[in-house]
Specification:
Pfam families: Radical_SAM (PF04055). With about 450 residues, this protein is α/β, with parallel strands linked by helices. The protein is built from 15 helices and 17 strands. The strands form four sheets. It has a ten-stranded mixed sheet with strand order 10-9-8-7-6-5-12-13-14-15.
Length: about 450
C-alpha cells in the first residue's frame, strides 16, 4: 500500500508505512520520506538441511491411532459433508509404524541438528476416537519413555468424545494427559453428536465427564478443557453458559469447517452454519459484559488482529524481538515451515504437516516397515504451492502479516485462490474501519496490548 491517504468520517486522515508498521496522522498534505515503501523479496525454497533442522526441533508429534469412531456426528470432518480425506475403514494404527517414525525422529533429536535444550515435545493421539485404540497409545508412551539420551521430554494430549472415558481415565490421569472434550453444550445443543444408530451421545458423555471431575478434581482443574462446534442447534452464549456452569471452564468455540466440502455438503453446511461472531453479537448484554467473554465480541476480536498485524508492537516470540528491521525477505502466506511445528502420521501411513488439512497433501509415507520421507521432495512440494499463490501475495497488504495457510486454499485454473486477499481499495476501507474504532475506544488499545504475551 503506497502512500494512500486513509480518511475517516470524522475528517481525520492517516498515512500508513508498511515498512515500519506505523500510522501517522496526515496533515497539510505532507508525505515524509518515512513512508517510502521497501521492496519485498519472497522466499519460496527450503533446503533439506532446513527441513531436517525443523524435524530435529519438532514441537508436536501427532499420531492418528485409528480412523474408527463410536459416534457418527452429523458435521464430522470425516463424514458425508466432506470429500478431502481417505475412506474411513475402522483401521487401527500399527505400533511397528509408529516405532519406525519415532526411531527416525530420535536419531535427529540426538544429532547436532537438535539445537533446543531439554525441549518438551507434545505427543497428540488423534482419531477417529483415540480411546478405541488404547493399546497403541500405551505402547507408544512406553516406548517414548524408554528412549535414552534424546535430549527431549514428552507430554501427551488428546481430543476425545468421552464415550469411553470411564474405562480409561485412570491411565490418562497417571500420564498427566491434557484432555480436550468435544461437547456442544446441553443435550439439545449436542444433538448432532450421535452414535451409529442416530441416538444422542450426551446421556453417556456428560456423566463420564462429571465422574472424572469428581474423582480427580485437581487434574480436572489443571488438565481439562472443552471444545464446542457452533451450528444451528446452539449459540456462543449457550455453550459458554453451560460449560461454565457445569464444569467451571471457558470452552473453545469453533465454526463448522468450510474446507474440503463435498457437493452434498455445501448445501447442508449452509443450513447448519452459525457464525461465531454473529452469535456473540446476538447474545444477551449480561453475557457480553462478563470479562471472560468480552474478547468474543467480533469488533474487539478483529481489532486485536488489526493491532497484531499492523502496529509493529506485537511479537510472537522472543526471537522476533531480535529480527532486523530492514529484513525484506518474507515467506509468502502464513503457512508454517515444513515440520516446524508438527508432523502428523495417519492410520494409512501418510505423513502430513498438520492434522487440519485435507489428506491429499502427502509429504511422505510409512508403510510395510518402510519410511519414505525425502526432504528435497518436501521442499519442492512447498515451492510448487507457493508459486501458485505468490502473484497475489506481491500486491496484498497482508504480505507481511498473513495468517492464511496455503494448504487450506482452493485451486482454480492452476492458481490458489485466497479469500483474504487485500488490495488497495479494500485495505483503505479496512484501515479506516479500525482506526475509527480505535478513536472511539481509546482504552481498548491498552487493554488489547495487556493481553498479549510473549512465548
Amino acid at each position: 500500500m503506497k502512500n494512500e491517504v486513509i480518511k475517516l468520517d470524522n475528517k481525520h486522515s492517516y498515512l500508513y508505512s508498511n515498512s515500519h508498521k506505523m500510522f501517522m496522522l496526515y496533515k497539510n498534505g505532507r508525505r515524509d520520506d518515512f513512508f517510502v515503501e521497501d521492496w519485498i523479496t519472497f522466499k519460496t525454497d527450503y533446503s533439506s538441511e532446513a527441513i531436517k533442522m525443523n524435524l530435529a526441533n519438532l514441537r508436536q508429534l501427532l499420531i492418528e491411532v485409528t480412523d474408527a469412531c463410536n459416534l457418527q456426528c452429523k458435521y464430522c470432518g470425516y463424514g458425508d459433508l466432506y470429500a478431502n480425506y481417505d475412506k474411513r475403514e475402522a483401521k487401527l494404527q500399527q505400533f511397528a509404524n509408529v516405532k519406525l517414525l519415532i526411531d527416525h525422529l530420535s536419531d535427529l533429536w540426538r544429532s547436532e541438528y537438535n539445537t533446543s535444550y531439554n525441549k518438551n515435545i507434545t505427543v497428540g493421539f488423534y482419531g477417529g476416537e483415540p480411546l478405541m485404540n488404547m493399546r497403541l497409545i500405551k505402547e507408544t508412551i512406553a516406548y517414548l519413555e524408554s528412549l535414552q539420551d534424546v535430549n527431549v521430554s514428552f507430554s501427551y494430549n488428546m481430543t476425545t468424545n468421552g464415550v469411553l472415558l470411564d474405562k480409561y481415565m485412570d491411565f490418562l490421569v497417571e500420564k498427566n494427559f491434557k484432555l480436550l472434550f468435544s461437547l456442544d453444550g446441553n443435550e439439545y445443543n449436542s444433538g448432532y453428536r450421535v452414535d451409529k444408530q442416530g441416538k444422542g451421545s450426551f446421556s453417556k458423555v456428560f456423566p463420564n465427564i462429571k465422574l472424572m471431575q469428581s474423582t480427580y478434581p485437581d487434574f480436572f482443574d489443571k488438565n481439562v478443557n472443552f471444545n464446542a462446534v457452533l451450528h444451528d442447534r446452539n449459540s456462543v452464549e449457550d455453550v459458554f453458559s453451560f460449560i461454565k456452569q457445569e464444569f467451571g471452564k471457558t470452552p473453545r468455540v469453533a465454526e463448522l469447517n468450510t474446507n474440503g466440502l463435498s457437493e452434498k455438503g455445501k448445501e447442508e453446511l449452509k443450513r447448519m452454519f452459525n457464525s461465531r461472531y454473529d452469535s456473540f453479537d446476538k447474545a444477551s448484554d449480561v453475557f457480553k459484559s462478563q470479562e471472560e467473554n468480552r474478547m468474543e465480541d467480533s469488533a474487539s476480536t478483529f481489532f486485536h488482529t488489526f493491532v497484531r498485524d499492523f502496529t509493529g508492537n506485537y511479537y510472537n516470540s522472543y526471537i522476533d524481538l531480535f529480527d532486523s528491521e530492514d529484513n525484506t525477505t518474507y515467506i509468502p502466506t502464513g503457512t508454517c515451515r515444513p515440520f516446524e511445528r508438527k508432523i502428523f502420521l495417519t492410520v494409512n501411513g501418510k505423513i502430513l504437516p498438520c492434522e487440519k488439512m485435507g489428506q491429499n497433501h502427502v509429504l511422505g509415507t510409512l508403510k510395510n516397515g518402510i519410511l519414505d520421507l525425502d526432504y528435497e521432495k518436501v521442499g519442492a512440494y512447498y515451492h510448487d504451492l507457493y508459486e501458485k499463490v505468490i502473484k497475489n501475495c506481491k500486491t496484498c497488504l497482508l504480505q507481511k502479516a498473513c495468517g492464511q495457510c496455503m494448504f487450506l486454499l482452493e485451486e482454480k485454473d492452476g492458481k490458489l485462490v485466497c479469500p483474504g486477499y487485500m488490495g488497495k481499495n479494500k485495505s483503505v476501507e479496512y484501515f479506516a474501519r479500525y482506526l475509527s474504532y480505535a478513536e472511539e475506544h481509546p482504552d481498548l488499545y491498552e487493554s488489547v496490548m495487556s493481553t498479549i504475551a510473549i512465548d
